[in-house]
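Try this one yourself first.
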């Protein structure tokens, strides 16, 4: 089975000396400004494709809770970061997307041995459907271009596989044995917002060895032959996480191997 391609990083360089942008933010907002910026970089580093879509309500709720500042203060800080160029101004002001070219450039070494690469700004807009909405708004169909009746337009032959929504398509592939993703990478990729709210916010800080937890959960899902749907997998993940947290001392690789290993994030 091919290894799932990663689109995030476990760490980023933290410079000891800061420039005028950080000086301004820290002077204006005090420790809140400093903490918001570097905690925001942590979230961008661990986020899929290194951007956060604030148009998703759950993302906005999570980022407020994670950064631990008032909503009004956070809006002011983000606005200043955009004006200073610390985050991309166009993406933030016009599309409510947080993305930092500086962060992506600082972690480019992590992608040298990967087949995947960070997304360009245009690719981010396409992935978040903003490009499609923007194009539709800019080029409305004129009355002259509108077909008079159904006979004027040839009917398009639909490929039945292409017409299946993502979740249902995953079910079909699962039945055919063609699925090439495991449970946790699948949930992170297909349901990133729910992954944050239903797992990361509830359980991740209580799990001592996230890498071993992820491996064991993936193996359990494979052994039980569960269908890859959000309802089934998130229900199983919640139950598995609660049981793991309660009994994780007996699952610990420290007890099994008599050595301490660094545990990267899931």
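Now uncover the answer:
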């Amino acid at each position: 089975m091919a290894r799932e391609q990663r689109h995030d990083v476990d760490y980023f360089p933290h410079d000891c000396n800061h420039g005028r942008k950080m000086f301004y933010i820290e002077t204006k907002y005090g420790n809140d400004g400093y903490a918001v910026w570097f905690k925001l970089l942590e979230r961008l580093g661990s986020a899929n494709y290194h951007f956060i879509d604030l148009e998703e309500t759950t993302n906005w709720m999570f980022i407020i809770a994670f950064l631990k500042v008032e909503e009004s203060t956070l809006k002011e800080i983000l606005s200043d970061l955009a004006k200073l160029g610390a985050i991309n101004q166009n993406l933030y002001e016009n599309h409510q997307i947080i993305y930092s070219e500086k962060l992506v450039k600082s972690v480019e070494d992590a992608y040298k041995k990967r087949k995947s690469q960070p997304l360009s700004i245009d690719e981010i807009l396409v992935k978040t459907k903003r490009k499609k909405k923007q194009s539709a708004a800019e080029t409305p169909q004129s009355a002259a271009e509108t077909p008079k009746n159904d006979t004027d337009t040839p009917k398009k032959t639909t490929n039945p596989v292409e017409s299946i929504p993502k979740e249902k398509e995953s079910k079909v592939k699962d039945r055919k044995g063609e699925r090439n993703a495991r449970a946790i990478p699948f949930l992170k990729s297909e349901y990133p917002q729910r992954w944050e709210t239903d797992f990361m916010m509830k359980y991740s800080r209580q799990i001592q060895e996230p890498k071993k937890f992820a491996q064991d959960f993936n193996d359990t899902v494979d052994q039980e032959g569960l269908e890859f749907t959000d309802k089934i997998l998130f229900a199983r993940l919640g139950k598995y996480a609660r049981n793991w947290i309660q009994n994780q001392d007996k699952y610990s690789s420290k007890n099994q191997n008599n050595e301490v290993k660094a545990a990267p994030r899931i």
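Discussion: The first strand starts at residue 51 and ends at 53. Confidence is low (pLDDT under 50) at residues 142-148, 150-178, 258-266.
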